[in-house]
Structures are given as structure tokens and as C-alpha cells.
Amino acid sequence: MARKTRSEMIAETRIKLVNAAREAFGTIGYANTSMDELTASAGLTRGALYHHFGDKKGLLEAVVNEIDAEMDSRLAEISDTAEGNWEGFVGRCHAYLAMAIEPEIQRIVLRDAPSALGNAYSQSSQSQCLATMADMLHRLMIDQVIKTTDHEALARLLNGALINTAFWLANAENAEDGLSKALQSLSLVLNGLLLKDR
Are 42 and 119 in contact (CB under 8 A)? Predict the structure, then answer.
């Protein structure tokens, strides 16, 4: 059996730490996670954590980035397999809100990350989502599916509303009921964008 290269060992260590952190942050939360227990559960030392991620916040950021990438992939699949561009756009918006009540996303991405990482996280984590939304809206305007306006401004308005609603759902006492109300309201907002003759 061939020996692992240094880059393979580094990648393996990072994966172990992120997986252990994701499990801990998702079950007991960021604040309640002990770095000694986390590194021990991964069969590593605290030094490995500091070497690869700098500190606990760096590890949280890596976990959030991994979850964000998975969310983006899920949303892309929805729009890629939809019947049309409009259906794909609406499906993405609905799915994003539905993700807000998934326990792992709710706890790590919508509760712990904003409080632990601050505004810098919130702004950087949404840049790709915002760009994708702006592109989709621009395409819908060109195809004369929705009314014409500045697509980047509209993307910021809709994205901001979705993020704010996701935070609300993540902290709601009855998230399922809140999601139902949010999706109904979202449909009213999105349908208001459609051209009358469509």
C-alpha cells in the first residue's frame, strides 16, 4: 500500500476536524463545544486545529463554508431541473426558506455563525447567492417573464427579504407554521413581478 503524501495527510486532517466540528456544532452548538473534546473525537490534537484553522472561529467558518456550498449545490439542482427559468427561480426561493428549518442549517448557519463571526460572515457568505439571483432575474427580464427594473437592486431586495425571513424561521417557536406563512407571502411577492400577459 502506497504511503500518503503530505497534501493527502493535510486534506485528511482538515476533513476530520470539519466533520467532527460539524457534528458537535450541529448537536450541542458552537458555544458549548469544547475544542479538547472535539479534537479528541477526531483522534487529533488541539495543535492540529490551530495549525489548520487558526482557532475555533476559523473552524466554524470552514464548517459554514462547507454547508453553504452544499446549499448552493442543492439550489442549483432545483433551478437546473425545473421546467423553465421562472419555475427554477421560484423553486430556489422556496427551497432556501425550507432549508432554514433544517436543524443543522438552523443552528450552525443561521444562529451560531452570525453571532460568532459577525457581519463580515453575513456579507461574504451571501455574495455568490446574490450574484446568482441577479443573473437569474436579468435573464427573466430579457425573456420578458418579469417586469423590467434594475436586476441587481431587485436581487438585493429579494435576497435581503429571504435572509431576514430565514433568520426569523430559524428562531421561531413553530418553524413549520412560520414556513407555511412565509411561503404563502413569498408567492404573493414573486407573482407580483410577473408581466400581466404571461
Answer: no
